[in-house]
Amino acid sequence: MGKPLHGERILITREVTKADAMAEKVTKLGGNPIVVPMIEIKLKKQLENHSILERLADFSWVLLTSANGVHGFFQLLRQQHMALPQTLKIGVVGKKTENVLNAYGYSASFVPETFDAMTMAEGFMSFYDKRKKPVLLIRGNLSRKTLPEKFREAQIPFETLEVYETMYARKSTQALNQVLPSVDYITFTSPSTVEAFAALAAYIPDKATYICIGQTTEEKAEEEGIPNLYTSSPYTTDAMLCLIGKLVNERKMHNE
Residue 131 phi/psi, 5° resolution? Predict the structure, then answer.
């Protein structure tokens, strides 16, 4: 397969529970992974609007926009010894979220072709029958407002349920600032990793190249003034590393 990453130092900013798998891929491709998580995920054990779980039959769809949302939602159901009504259909943002859903014994009735919230919203609006019951959006405290805004515009009735919290990994601040001068590529797998990076970094290196997993993550990076942005397609970590390999090869050829 070769080693397309040629020893490049690649900063992985995603949460610690997912960082190791990405680091292993970097190593196999010949890169040097540097894991410094920017965020921490805490699943909620109690809900402010607990009554929603008792009203699941009032909804036609439940939409899950992340693996964390799947874990948080179904762990809450298990704590309450509850199961989803058979009439409730499930939509997920992408294949990885779908795989986590399958692990809980459920299957998705809707998966967008491109794995981001904007495509999910647009695809679902053409899929949704307005004569049906409202939609339940499963979210985290820092989830993007794309779906709620698009649903309001389209007059699709919905409610939201926050099942997890995303927090800055402030304990990573020292480690982050120690490695910043030496990294070649910095990867962002969600808007929240961008936001936390911008908050915790002493400065934003202009010599590094920044790789975003999708459009919404790229938009957040642009808002934070991060330079040298590239976005992978499709929106997966494998595609991110493939893109880095392509950039490394192009620059190697340019320097020869």
Answer: -80, -10
CATH code linked to domain 9-38+171-255: 3.40.50.10090
Query: Which CATH code for domain 42-166?
Result: 3.40.50.10090
Query: pLDDT tens for residues 156-215?
Result: 999 999 999 999 999 999 999 999 999 999 999 999 999 999 999 999 999 999 999 988
Residues facing residue 161 across a β-bridge? 138
Burial class of residue 150 in the structure, from the number of CB atoms within 10 Å of its CB (0-12 exposed, 13-18 middle, 19+ buried)? middle
- Is residue 59 within 8 A of residue 87, CB to CB? The reply is no
Residue boundaries of the structural domains of the chain: 9-38+171-255, 42-166
Angle between helix axes 67-79 and 95-103 (nearest 10 degrees) is 20
- What tens digit of pLDDT does each residue of 94-133 get? 888 999 999 999 999 999 877 677 788 888 988 788 777 9
What count of Cα atoms within 13 Å lies in the side-chain half-sphere of residue 255?
6
Distance from C-alpha of 134 to C-alpha of 132, rounded to nearest angstrom? 7
